[in-house]
Design a protein that fits this description.
Layout lengths: L2 E7 L13 E2 L2 E2 H9 L8 E5 L2 H9 L3 E4 L7 H9 L6 E4 L9 H13 L5 E7 L3 H5 L5 E4 L5 E5 L18 E10 H7 L6 H6 L3 H6 L5 E4 L10 H13 L1
Helix pairs in contact: 3-6
């Protein structure tokens, strides 16, 4: 296969345990994510990588392909690497299991970048920041890119620094969306890369890739993704789904 999607689905969550099976319109959140991902035209298969039997059962009940993975993975990247290890595929797209409004066109654009450019090992998604509060929020990761849209750096701090004193609307800032595509051979080797000082400082694993000298191509989108991190986020997404 050329490209597949893998959705890491973890039961534990500091702020919202079991959120992956929280109900939205009578269906578990992970089902909404899966249904959106299945609309992507370039993915030949979609796998849910579970760490809990409750998630595995729910996924199979609504017809998804699901596999059990180790509970002790430190990141979603490690989890999807295990799920994809024995799959004959070139490109693996990592889709967050807590974003039920994910746009399948964004997934396709990400997969397409690696399918068309065989020199790329990894790609991710960015979006222009729409408000100044997000620029200052350390939970919103900022990205700086070069003229070819390759990532230069990711940070929780406001970057680039506005020394010229321009107003927010006069400058361009990007936020990083947690959606990745990897060439499978690179994904399997990712865990072998040493944790870098930059990654340890910012708590951003993509910095391990840049620090090791690899390129990360960024794909710009204007679609806003909404992750569910708290019960309040779930209420917000529920309202948006009803609006649709």
């Amino acid at each position: 296969m050329k490209a597949i999607g893998v959705i890491p689905a973890r039961w534990g969550s500091t702020r919202f345990e079991g959120k992956i099976l929280a109900l939205l319109n009578g269906r578990p959140m992970i089902e909404h994510v899966w249904r959106q991902v299945k609309k992507a035209k370039l993915l030949e298969d979609v796998i849910i990588a579970c760490d809990d039997e409750r998630i595995l059962k729910a996924a199979k009940d609504f017809g998804a392909k699901a596999v059990m993975t180790a509970k002790d993975h430190e990141s979603g990247t490690d989890r999807i690497a295990e799920a994809a290890a024995n799959v004959d595929v070139d490109v693996v797209v990592n889709i967050q299991g807590d974003e039920p409004l994910i746009d399948p066109r964004v997934i396709d654009s990400l997969a397409d970048a690696l399918l068309k450019d065989k020199t790329l090992s990894m790609a991710t998604v960015i979006k222009r920041l729409a408000n100044e509060e997000d620029l200052k929020n350390p939970n919103v990761v900022k990205a700086v890119v070069d003229q070819h849209k390759n990532a230069l750096y990711f940070s929780r701090s406001p970057i680039p620094y506005n020394r010229a004193g321009k107003s927010f609307g006069q400058s361009v800032y990007y936020k990083h969306l947690g959606l990745y595509a990897y060439r499978k051979v690179f994904l399997l080797g990712f865990k072998k890369l040493p944790v870098s000082l930059l990654e340890a400082a910012e708590k951003l694993e993509q910095l391990r890739v840049l620090d090791a000298g690899y390129k990360i191509r960024t794909i710009e989108t204007d679609h806003e993704t909404i992750g569910v991190d708290t019960p309040e986020d779930l209420v917000r997404v529920q309202a948006l789904l009803k609006g649709k």
